[in-house]
Write a structure and sequence with these properties.
It is a single chain. By secondary structure, the chain is of the alpha+beta class. It folds into two domains: 129 residues, no CATH class; 130 residues, no CATH class. 37% of the residues lie in helices and 16% in strands. The protein has a five-stranded antiparallel β-sheet, with helices on one face. The chain has a five-stranded antiparallel β-sheet with strand order 6-3-5-4-7, with helices on one face. Bound molecules: zinc ion. The site of zinc ion has 9 residues, from helix 4.
Length: 357
């Protein structure tokens, strides 16, 4: 039988064994223990132990109660959102028709993965986008208020603390809360259209009233119904932050129409493989390049082909109002979570149609 290893390989192994034998006994024992540990880890990964059905922990009386409230309120909210979505709404003329965002992230296959997609407009005067914003905000808030922290998805039982303030006083108040309880303390705030701010906290604060979570939800829902028409009017902060770091970075944006089918043709022609996609929210194109510069050039060329006067503008972090809050995660946009864009009105358009972010 001939060995699958070459003579050079065998020689390497022989030399390694000789080096190992020459080590002091204590060091040899440590290495052997490490090898055995690694072997056990590999065995465990290859032959996972049989795990029986996991047992759902019994709820305490208090949790049982909170769970009933949560079920009732989430059902009410779902019915409300279903009702809203049954209405036929007019889109803003610019909604989902113009503009494209170019996002990139490192690809698992090497190089850079890019997505070029057309987001919804997110305008305050677009009924469709406002409905989406309202329903999403309500669902985020409901799960934050009614469900406890941790992976168990148990209903929240401990009281939450409510405080009313104004937009002008909020930054100082948030600083004071952070000084008292640390930046990780869970809190959310809702800016209403009249400039008043509802604050909900997991820890007590002077002047804040404790309420049971199901009562808090009614107040938060009423506040969200009067949500101010501006970005980040609703925010969850500290431990309650639900921002997800997606790895996608916004690289470029245009307010011009991009035809993704012809863009795919162009990208394929340049030796990259583009893939078109369409969901209920978005449509666009995914492709992979060796470098970010290559991706930017491709996107620049796609837009230049359709709009010869256009020039490429890089995305700069825009006027995200931070309001002095400690941000636990950067507000990076992700493809399904498109940020609102201000589209210039057609009569105000400049010859160069790339909009700076
Ligand atoms: Zn819209």
């Amino acid at each position: 039988m001939c060995s699958p290893l070459s003579d050079a390989d065998l020689e390497l192994i022989r030399r390694a064994e000789a080096r190992f034998d020459a080590l002091p006994p204590e060091q040899r024992r440590l290495i052997e223990a490490a090898v055995q540990f690694g072997q056990r880890a590999v065995d465990a990964a290859l032959n996972p132990p049989d795990v029986g059905p996991s047992i759902i922990p019994e709820l305490s009386e208090e949790e049982e109660d909170a769970d009933l409230h949560r079920g009732r309120l989430l059902h009410r909210l779902q019915k409300r959102c279903d009702e809203l979505y049954r209405q036929k709404l007019q889109r803003h003329p610019a909604c989902g028709l113009k503009g494209a965002l170019h996002l990139s992230r490192p690809s698992a296959l090497g190089g850079v993965e890019s997505v070029l997609f057309r987001p919804r407009c997110g305008r305050i005067d677009c009924p469709c986008c406002q409905r989406r914003r309202l329903c999403r905000t309500l669902k985020r808030a409901a799960s934050c208020v009614l469900t406890g922290d941790g992976a168990t998805y148990l209903p929240r039982t401990e009281p939450l603390f409510l405080l009313e303030t104004t937009l002008a006083r909020w930054p100082a108040l948030d600083r004071a809360i952070r000084r008292k309880h640390g930046g990780k303390t869970g809190r959310l705030r809702v800016i209403r259209s009249d400039g008043s701010v509802l604050v909900v906290m997991e820890q007590p604060y002077p002047g804040a009233e404790p309420f049971a979570p199901h009562l808090v939800w009614d107040i938060v829902e009423a506040a969200i119904d009067e949500l101010a028409p501006k970005r980040h009017a609703y925010r969850q902060l500290g431990r309650w932050s639900d921002a997800v770091r997606s790895g996608w970075k916004l690289v470029q944006r245009t307010s011009e129409f991009v035809n993704f089918a012809s863009a795919k043709g162009y990208i394929d022609g340049m030796g990259h493989k583009g893939r078109l996609f369409r969901t209920s929210e978005l449509q666009g194109l995914i492709f992979r390049t060796g470098t970010q510069a290559e991706a930017n050039t491709l996107v620049g060329a796609i837009v230049a082909a359709a709009h010869p006067t256009a020039s490429v503008s890089e995305y700069l972090p825009s006027s995200l109002e931070v309001l002095g809050e400690s941000r636990t995660a950067t507000g990076e946009p992700t493809p399904p979570d498109d940020p609102p864009i201000d589209f210039p009105r057609s009569e105000e358009r400049e010859p160069s149609r790339w909009a700076m972010a």
